[in-house]
Design a protein that fits this description.
The complex is a heterodimer of chains A (355) and B (259). Chain A has 355 residues and is mainly alpha-helical. Chain A contains 15 helices and two strands. The two termini of chain A are 24 Å apart. Chain B contains nine helices and twelve strands. The chains are: A mainly alpha (355), B alpha/beta (259).
């Protein structure tokens, strides 16, 4: 029988396995963070990194130089944590979008958020506002994202109800429109240096990450991610159908709108500060779902850590492989992510479904 | 004493300008099965959704155990009434995960696993013959198997009233009979009140205690199967000629369609 040849995702109904899985991901996360601190153009050994943390915890020692402390403190650590948090946030946002839209292609950029952010950012560079403050680009990117969101939601909502097909289509249309504006701004910007800066921003990166930005972004990404976990079982029920969800006691319209806003906030804040990190929000949820199954209560935490590890790993590669120069992290995520995803598609051809 | 049963009183409903239901009333009590029959587009599904509380009527009201359906708290309503939609589902969950979703109502928000809840789901699955499909994904099942998964989830919901939109459509003859007797058993043993939309008039005649025949959004006739399924009614509502044989000692009839 055909059915016996269909491999089913492993069941993680046993609590022990769930806790083990999360612990495993947390250990891998810590390991990736630790290794990422070590590598870079300025040499810092593993022992010195260890001493940095000892110092941090109050065990004073002088086995690490002040320069090394300064580099870890002001450059590497905030960048690493930023990559980690944004990677997790974008992936969780992808899980929510795919579940709500019941569409395999849904990712955080599908509702025009990324395109809006890009337009805002190049606008800030074009007008020269960007040189006034380090917050100018994130602010305008955030503004752009929200203008795109309001347009898309405005087009697709009618009398308090949001039509999902209209939302996806208007998201794509607004996205295309904004992308054309972005391209136009880049073309008409005569200054080579600002053109370079615009394209740099579009490729996404964490090189500008500092504590100030991190302190602002971390709560706006982490708190909505935790809230989405609270609604994870409602998201499960929403995936089986609207009428069925309604009859199982879910406030369908409210829950859907609320989760959409949650996912949009995560995405727009991430995009505003780091630019467009391609592909993460689309493939990480798919990969994790293939491995552990579709239950969002388990999928959301697993996806957060998997996305974090993937983006941090990509960023570490981006800043080391052609050291002392850098590649943009968006290039690495696509370059690593796409072939791996295609490999999974081929090996799971029978197993793939339409959400 | 608390009133028992579902009471639908003079319900009217329209989608925009299109009138769907006009002054429909019905009543069903625990332990009874009410069948709704009528041609396509006569408003059967809208009526069932209104009874389930999914749609709100423009006029009239639905009472469940004496309380207006739209005033009952959602989670309480779900424990009181379950609804089986007509369309087959497609999603990436496994059979067990799908059936467990109706047990969320009885579990804590962060409770991922509960063996006694799982036992209830497995029991419901074995009643419709899908217990061996536990870890199979919905998208690799056939239409009939999916229908039985949805039935299992409805049984696992453990509600007092069951609303079913064509519960046996798409099932092979063995499972049509098995599910029909399962619904009968549920109504007698668990004392559930049942409302089901049916297309097979003969099965409706045998299974249901009462029949509501809907035509163009109105109550056409309402009563025991023997009174509803007459040659005249079937000709008027379905535009099909038929011969009716009354079965002795029962309220049901055999309908033969003449083409």
């Amino acid at each position: 029988m055909l059915r016996n040849t269909v491999r089913t995702p492993k069941q993680y109904h046993v609590k022990g396995k769930l806790i083990f899985g999360i612990l495993f991901l947390i250990i891998i996360s810590l390991f990736t963070i630790y290794v990422s601190i070590n590598v870079g153009p300025y040499e810092i050994s593993k022992g010195e990194t260890f001493n940095f943390f000892l110092n941090y915890l109050g065990f004073e020692n002088h086995l690490i130089s002040d320069t090394q402390i300064a580099i870890i403190q002001t450059v590497r650590l905030p960048r690493i944590l930023m990559a980690f948090i944004v990677g997790g946030g974008l992936s969780v946002s992808g899980v929510i979008m795919q579940a709500l839209f019941r569409n395999n292609l849904a990712d955080p950029s599908i509702i025009g958020v990324s395109a809006g952010g890009a337009t805002g950012a190049v606008f800030a560079i074009f007008t020269g506002i960007a040189v006034l403050s380090v917050w100018a680009i994130p602010f305008f990117a955030f503004l752009g994202s929200f203008i795109a969101l309001f347009l898309v939601f405005g087009i697709s909502s009618f009398a308090g109800r949001i039509s999902v097909p209209t939302l996806i289509l208007s998201g794509i249309a607004i996205g295309a429109f904004l992308n054309s504006i972005t391209s136009a701004i880049i073309l008409f910007s005569g200054d080579i240096e600002s053109q370079r800066q615009m394209i740099f921003w579009l490729a996404g990166g964490f090189d500008t990450a500092r504590w100030a930005g991190l302190k602002f972004i971390a709560p706006i990404v982490i708190i909505p991610s935790i809230i989405s976990l609270i609604f994870a079982r409602d998201l499960n029920i929403l995936m089986i159908g609207e009428d069925q969800a309604e009859s199982l006691g879910i406030r369908v319209q409210f829950t859907r709108n609320f989760l959409l806003i949650i996912a949009s906030i995560i995405t727009s804040v991430s995009v505003a500060y780091t630019g467009v990190i391609a592909f993460v929000g689309l493939i990480i949820p798919h990969i994790v779902r293939l491995v552990i199954g579709a239950d969002n209560r388990i999928l959301i935490p697993f996806t957060f850590f998997s996305g974090s590890i993937f983006v941090l790993f990509s960023d570490t590669l981006a800043r080391t492989i052609i050291s002392p120069a850098e590649i943009r992290v968006g290039l690495i995520t696509s370059f690593l992510g796409a072939p791996f995803f295609i490999y999974l598609l081929i090996t799971n051809r029978k197993n793939f479904y339409s959400l | 004493m608390k009133k028992n049963g579902i009471k639908v009183e003079s319900v009217s409903f329209s989608f925009g300008k299109k009138a769907i239901l006009n002054n429909v009333s019905l009543e069903v009590f625990p332990g009874k099965i009410l069948g709704i029959v009528g041609p396509n587009g006569s408003g059967k599904t809208s009526l069932l959704k209104i009874i389930a509380g999914i749609l709100k009527p423009d006029k009239g009201f639905v009472q469940v155990d004496g309380e207006n359906i739209n005033k009952i708290k959602r989670s309480d309503r779900a424990k009181l009434i379950s609804y089986l939609p007509q369309f087959e589902e497609n999603h990436p969950f496994t059979v067990l995960e799908t059936v467990m979703m109706s047990r969320y109502l009885y579990m804590g928000r962060f409770q991922i696993q509960d063996d006694s809840e799982k036992d209830i789901a497995i029991k419901a699955m074995s009643r419709v013959g899908i217990e061996n499909l536990s870890n199979v994904n919905i998208y690799s099942l056939s239409g009939g198997e999916r229908q039985r998964v949805m039935l299992a989830r409805m049984l696992a919901q453990s509600s007092k009233y069951l609303l079913m939109d064509e519960p046996v459509t798409g099932l092979d003859i063995k499972y049509q009979i098995q599910i029909a007797s399962l619904i009968r058993e549920q109504s007698k043993v668990m004392n559930t009140g049942n409302i089901m939309i049916m297309h097979n008039l003969n099965l409706a005649s045998k299974l249901c205690d009462e029949i509501l025949m809907i035509f163009k959004g109105k109550n056409y006739t309402y009563g025991i199967p023997g009174d509803v399924f007459t040659k005249e009614n079937i000709l008027k509502v379905f535009s099909v000629d038929s011969t009716i044989t009354q079965n002795f000692h029962t309220t049901n009839v055999d309908i033969k369609f003449v083409s």
